[in-house]
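REQUEST ID: PR-0412
SUBMITTED BY: lab tech R.K.
PRIORITY: routine
TASK: structure prediction, single protein chain
INPUT:
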Amino acid sequence: MDLFDHHREAQIDAEAPLAARLRPRTLDEFVGQDAVVGPGRLLRRAIQADQLSSLIFFGPPGTGKTTLARIIANTTSAQFIALNAVLAGVKDIREAIAQAQDLRGQFGRRTILFVDEVHRFNKAQQDALLPWVESGTVILIGATTENPFFEVNKALVSRSRVFQLKSLERDDLYRVVDQALADPVRGYGERHVRLDEAALDHLVNVSNGDARALLNALELAVETTEPDQEGMIHISLAVAEESIQQRAVLYDKEGDAHFDTISAFIKSLRGSDPDAALYWLARMIYAGEDPRYIFRRLVILASEDIGLADPQAVSVAMSCAESFDRIGMPEGRYPLAQATLYLATAPKSNSAMAFFDALSAVETEQQRDVPNPLRDPNRDKEGFGHGKGYLYPHSYREHWVAQQYLPSGLQGQVFYQPSDQGYERSIQQQVVRRREAQLAAMVEGTSTPTSEALTDSPDDPARDRWLQRTVSQTGERLGQIRDRLFASVDIQRHHTIFDLNARSGLLTWEAVRQVPEGGVYSRVETVQDFNALAEQAAMLPELSRPVIFQASLSEIASELKKVAHGVKFDRIVGRNLFGTISPTADLIQAIVAELNTTGRLALVEMVPRDSQRLWQLIPAEKLPKTLQNHWRQAEESLYADTTDPRFAWTGETLTQLLEAAGLTVTWSQEVVQSDLFVSQKLCDRWFDTTNPHSYRSRLATAISAQDLATIEKLLRRQVQNQTVTWQSTCLWLTGVVKTT
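STATUS: complete
OUTPUT:
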């Protein structure tokens, strides 16, 4: 670059629009998008570590897509090449690739290729990029205002990590204005600008989350307003209104706005919110959406989400659609509103979805013959007995008789589940009762029995089968706990999550799946657990791995300062933290302190003091009443011992500690039952005489050795090597940081 080039670029920079001059140069200057580049987020870590893979930034105009690319250009050690898809062609791509190959071959230096408006490239141009992205010759950073999953080559998207940037929040826009007015070099810091509060509010509101539109309006207001006698540029509300006239309606009938708005409309109807449904309807009509398309979706919803809860819903939707066809617009808005309000306020049921369960059975099950009684008797009744055994329902009371209509092997299968909403509630009990009668007929033989129903289990099933059954039930139960816990805290893709007690990784790996753009931190108690989780994490890409650390609960705060400095968590989850220790005020305060201001906490705990008692496994008649009472009292006293940290807390006390730490808590307890195989080893642990903490040793303080021997003998005889119903109490707590 010679002196003339340098002078020309300096002049261009000086004359650039305010939005271009104020473009952030570092992550610290970047405003907004904390969900993507906030502390602890995946993209921020990747930029700071200079470990970028191919990226696509997707979001509305003015949200920082190009700015992020420029920040990467300023921080990376790689060569940075920028193209605009509106102006560039295959020739430009080839030149960029050739330059990247030279740098890689001669100096081993990576190249980042930034393509603005990447969706503007046609298929051939995008295909020209694909092999070089796949080989790692270039790291692609694409920016687009259109959904890349629809507008960008699928192969290119699959090799890139997509980050969605949202419209800036109001607070972010206020910060942008503050920067513009304070910066003496790139902004108006050297001018005396007075911006009225009402004018600022108007500019922020009408810019609709677009920082570029906001700065353009501010620049127009400042540059076109004459200073007063004191040199003050006064921006009043009137000036602001002239600078930015109105909010643009973002609605493209072929793009995301179209699909997102109709989605919001349908979900509002499904959620029985007539106000929200009318709002989204108005948005679509104002933007010019085809009313016939809206009516089509209304008719679908009337069957999909209302169905038999209100059988008239389809009729109302169809009648309103026909009315619209007769009268047209603008009066056609009345039947549109009527259909919307009717469906929004109607009772809801999605029982029609049962069809897809039946379709799945047809697709996956082996094709089965039509049962003989159901076959057409008109052609083959004499030769093959088709139709023989069919019971004519009208010949029976209430025009119904218990017989089987499903093929052999599917008898007893349930597809349709009537809801308890609206009209469907009236048929629910009838359907259930008739199913029970059909099942009884099948089992008892009053209808055609099946071989499956009459097959007996082996007299002496293998013990391993029972053990496997218990294990599989445990896995299913843990999966249900995991899914329910995550559903309670509304996880977003960009969240940072802290797993308080990772252990086997049940919650950690689910968190990793749910926050691909955030981060996961996991605490383990033992070296064994740490090594096991670290080994599993090593199989993930480096930037996707959870941060695993070993520490006791009391060391959480100090350890997090080392591994997650500056990070406050969006969600904290935990399972069975207090199985062996008692929660304290200091411990709970330390945990809650790690949440951010909008954070949530979710815990699920098995309450030790409310767990299954062994004396309950033995029928009362098997023991003398005196011994049974003595045994019950002795065992109950163990669970009432508050000096034992396992039994020193309840759901109420834990809730009180969380609320005192600054959370608004909702909690519930439920008794859960599961199958437990009582093995010989388990009995041995219960009655271990060498362990001072075993069940037998603890009972020995209140029960004589002779009575203990009787209890042990009876328990082993009754439940050893048997599967028993084991009862536990599960405590669910969710906490939200209190707003001040």
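NOTES: The longest strand covers residues 663-678.
REVIEWED BY: pending
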